[in-house]
Design a protein that fits this description.
Elements (H helix, E strand, L loop, with lengths): L1 E2 L5 H4 L17 H11 L29 E5 L9 H12 L10 E5 L15 E4 L9 H12 L3 E5 L10 H7 L12 E7 L13 E6 L13 E7 L15 E8 L2 E6 L11 H14 L15 E5 L15 E6 L5 E5 L20 E10 L4 E11 L15 E6 L3 H4 L1 E6 L11 E12 L4 E16 L7 E6 L5 E5 L19 E2 L2 E2 L16 E7 L5 E2 L11 E2 L2 E2 L5 E4 L6 E5 L4 E6 L17 E6 L3 E2 L5 E2 L3 E2 L41 E4 L2 E5 L16 E4 L9 E6 L20 E5 L7 E5 L13 E4 L14 E6 L5 E5 L12 E7 L18
Parallel strand pairs: 1-3, 2-3, 2-4, 4-5, 5-10, 28-32
Antiparallel strand pairs: 6-7, 6-8, 8-9, 9-10, 11-44, 12-13, 13-14, 14-15, 16-17, 17-18, 18-19, 20-21, 21-24, 22-23, 24-25, 24-28, 26-27, 29-30, 30-31, 31-35, 33-34, 35-36, 36-37, 38-39, 39-40, 40-41, 42-43, 43-44
């Protein structure tokens, strides 16, 4: 390594306070032109001329195959040199000697800004700004840096580099953000969330990286305009008055002005450069900026995504394009199948009179969108109990056509599975109905649903006297087991919005306000996620390893159902299975209480869980991270009894016909209330939370609450062999998409789970907002009702529309595609042939 003499800023040039200026062109004079010529591998251009810059003529620093990869460390400061300089130079020098021989680089350090007007600047693959703040470059020197980047150079900024060149708009763009007026000066230990698990700068780091540093606050959050690879978690340190909130980027990269720019706000202490993980972070950044490795630094830049509505509004009085949106699935040939629950458009009749034979009658629709023709086919409909409209709990209705899945061999056998409530099976006297999962056939020649082909796999009774909670989602695992989500078939009323355990309300002997009858009952299929194995003849078998065998007894009788894989869920509208791991993902809606109660328990918690084994998720006894409710029972359900013991649950409801001693509640991964995400409280000696709002701590600050309806999404799996130009990039691989029906502050995020703790209720290690990629707002996807990735790697999303129990002009299928291109640099421009 060669280090030139360090000059005080006043010796380099007089400090200026120049105003923001127009960006300089390729050369401000002969000196800058000479730098440009070196970058292009030619002779110096005449002053004022612009050299050729086409991709075919660029001769980048250290051309492919060269052994001479070089890094320039620039360390000028407008004041006293920071103590990080010597430590940083020494660390970068050692990094250049590490790794395989094909990844080595040499280092030269200088404080002389004149280097940016010399042709030899073009001999460096990357420039590192290990600087303090201040106005360090004159116009010609910045023009030289601009020319260097335009010719394909690499830039790495460390910590206070974000404070350099404060008057330059171009340099602000190069860095990506500027520090806020207030940032904590002292080093503090904090947790860094490493969201990019593929970038060379972060792929070997812990998912949750705990380390001390000086943490910079940003004047404007750069998320969405740069690709963030790591964030600092503000609730693990004291960020001060300039705090950015839960989304606090700390390291990012982007392809900028022809070159590659990486910035890290870490490295504010000399000790940072002694950390093995921080050195690995810097080395990975240098691998990309020097062109020794490729990286995708475009994956989260929001302008690289296009959201397109692919269905038109229905014709008046028809459902030719879409019904009341309620779920979707994609075929292996790319077609999208989506269903309507049963509510028609505003002109559809709504019958609520139980004396009328047509009470609640609706049409559950099946539509198919073909990406080749860009057209919709109305495949058919099933007549459902599912159109009673809104109103109070005794009028509105969430039954209907609730779920859809395609057989794993759909392209050869045409089999489709529907989860629905047939109108033909309702009993108007007892106000009971039959829910079923049936197999139908789609005619491959016409894309029409053959109603005569129905094979009923599974059926069970549901009460329809009172709304709500039908559930409906379905999903396959890698062993061709079918998962079926069912709601607790329980009213939202009669428990003041808390546990839903009031045993008293009933209609003709059937309770409709006691979820212990359903979700908490080991002998009832409601409030569950079922797992069955469909057979060729239209029946099903039970796979091994469900929660029960169906043969368990309590006091001498059969008390369980062998179809149950998960119990204790309230209203799981959407579920998904990651076939790579066979982890089941689910989300369900919580009750209605807006605040926690020291008498009754937690507020409404909408919930998401990564489920790796058969389990009880708690409802209606416990929610969130095993926060108990208060028991109630006859003769006076208004009087609270003892707190439920989440680890030793007993179902002592008079409406329970299953086991009394039931499996313990397990902790869930994500929960949120109107106050925010991951509400938690101090607990007493018996483990009961205080439920005092003033003592509430929010463990998941990225979540907001309010009007809530959790909508589970998929885990994305990147297909490197797919030729699709629209597929989402590998950055999203393995990330779990969680969302809410409502837009705005409600969740619409991709989260990273720690595989070591995900199945035992571990909190997400990282979350990233999708609001700018999956657009919110009046003209966006305002009411999320279902989402999944297709075989083309595009995201397909259902927008419910703007009403309830109906479809309208905003009800639509959307397609969200990626347009950002491949990782950079392109293989032909890697600095060495052996580079990755």
């Amino acid at each position: 390594m060669r280090r030139t003499s360090r000059q005080k800023p006043s010796e380099v040039r007089g400090l200026s306070t120049r105003r923001p200026r127009e960006r300089y062109g390729w050369a401000a004079g002969l000196t800058a032109a000479a730098v440009t010529a070196a970058l292009l591998g030619g002779t110096p251009a005449l002053a004022g001329t612009a050299p050729e810059r086409s991709a075919t003529t660029l001769n980048l620093p250290s051309p492919p195959g060269s052994d001479n990869v070089r890094v320039l460390v620039f360390h000028a400061s407008a004041g006293e040199e920071p103590p990080t300089v010597d430590a940083g130079i020494a660390a970068i020098e050692k990094l250049g000697q590490q790794g395989p021989a094909g990844e080595h680089f040499s280092v030269e350090a200088t404080a002389d800004p004149a280097v940016f007007t010399k042709p030899r600047l073009g001999t460096f693959n990357a420039v590192v700004f290990l600087t303090g703040g201040g106005d360090l470059l004159d116009p010609d020197q910045e023009a030289g840096l601009e020319a260097y980047m335009e010719a394909g150079g690499g830039f790495l900024g460390i910590h206070d580099a974000a404070r350099a060149e404060p008057y330059s708009e171009w340099f602000t763009g190069l860095i990506g953000a500027r520090p806020a007026a207030q940032s904590p000066a002292a080093a503090q230990r904090a947790t860094v969330e490493v969201g990019d698990r593929a970038n060379p700068a972060t792929k070997d780091l812990p998912v949750q990286w705990k380390r001390p540093d000086q943490w910079i606050n940003w004047a404007e959050n750069p998320s969405g305009s740069v690709h963030t690879v790591a964030r600092v978690r503000e609730n693990t340190y004291r960020p001060g008055d300039g705090a950015n909130g839960w989304d606090h980027p700390m390291s990012w990269c982007h392809d900028y002005d022809g070159g590659r720019s990486f910035y890290t706000g870490m490295g504010g202490t000399a000790d940072s450069f002694q950390e093995a993980d921080f050195r690995a972070h810097l080395r990975g950044a240098l691998m990309w900026t020097t062109r020794l490795a490729r990286a995708d630094c475009q994956a989260t830049i929001t302008t690289n995504y296009t959201a397109e509505r692919v269905t038109s509004p229905n014709k008046p009085g028809m459902s030719d394009q879409i019904g009341e949106p309620h779920g979707l699935v994609t075929a292996k040939d790319g077609r999208v199948f989506y269903i309507g629950r049963g509510g028609g458009d505003g002109a559809a009749p709504v019958v609520t009179d139980w004396s009328d034979p047509n009470v609640g009658k609706g049409e559950g629709t099946v539509h198919i969108w073909d990406p080749k023709t860009k057209k919709v086919t109305a495949a058919g409909s099933v007549t459902v109990f599912g159109n009673k409209g809104g109103g109070d709990e005794l009028v509105k209705n969430e039954e209907g056509l609730l779920g859809i899945e395609l057989d794993p061999d759909f392209l050869s056998n045409g089999w489709i599975y529907l989860h629905y409530t047939p109108h033909s099976q309702i009993n108007r006297d007892t106000q009971m109905a039959e829910r079923r999962v049936s197999r139908f056939t789609i005619d491959p020649a016409t894309d029409k649903l053959d109603l005569s082909s129905e094979k009923v796999l599974l059926k069970w009774p549901v009460q329809i006297h009172s709304c709500c909670h039908a559930g409906g989602g379905m999903a396959w695992d890698s062993k061709n087991n079918l998962y079926i989500a069912t709601g607790d078939n329980n009213s939202s009323q009669f428990s003041d919005g808390y546990s839903g355990n009031n045993p008293e309300p009933a209609y003709k002997g059937v309770s409709f306000a006691d979820a212990r009858r359903t979700a908490g009952n080991t002998h009832n299929l409601n409030g569950k996620i079922l797992r069955i194995h469909p057979e060729q003849d239209g029946t099903y078998s039970l796979p091994e390893g469900n929660l029960f065998t169906g043969k368990e007894t309590d006091e001498g009788g059969g008390k369980t159902r062998g179809e149950i894989y998960v119990m204790g869920v309230r209203n799981p509208s959407r579920i998904s299975v990651d076939k790579k791991t066979d982890t089941l993902y689910a989300g369900w809606v919580g009750p209605d209480a807006t605040e926690p109660s020291p008498t009754w328990g937690p507020a409404k918690y909408d919930t998401f869980a990564a489920i790796t084994h058969p389990s009880n998720r708690g409802w209606p006894f416990c929610m969130g991270n095993k926060q108990p409710y208060r028991d109630r029972n006859l003769p006076d359900p208004t009087k609270p009894l003892g707190w439920y013991d989440c680890d030793h649950l007993k179902n002592e409801s008079p409406n329970n016909d299953g086991l009394v001693n039931i499996p313990p509640a397990e902790a869930n991964n994500i929960w949120y209330s109107p106050q925010g995400g991951g509400a938690d409280f101090p607990r007493d000696a018996n483990g009961v939370p205080s439920y005092q709002l003033s003592e509430q701590k929010l463990l998941l600050p990225w979540l907001k609450g309010g009007g809530q309806a959790a909508m589970d999404g998929p885990v994305y799996r990147y297909d490197a062999d797919s030729a699709s130009k629209d597929k989402w990039p590998a950055y999203w691989d393995g990330k779990w998409f969680v969302g809410d029906f409502y837009d705005g502050d409600q969740p619409r995020h991709a989260v990273v789970m720690d595989p070591k703790t995900a199945g035992s209720g571990g909190l997400p290690a990282h979350a990233e907002s999708l609001d700018k990629i999956i657009p919110v707002g009046a003209d966006g996807i305002r009411n999320l009702m279902g989402w999944t990735f297709g075989p083309d790697g595009a995201l397909y999303v259902l927008d419910y529309g703007r009403g309830f129990f109906t479809s309208d002009a905003k009800s639509a299928l959307w397609r969200v595609t990626y347009t950002g291109g491949a990782p950079t640099p392109v293989p032909s421009q890697l600095a060495r042939k052996a580079a990755r």
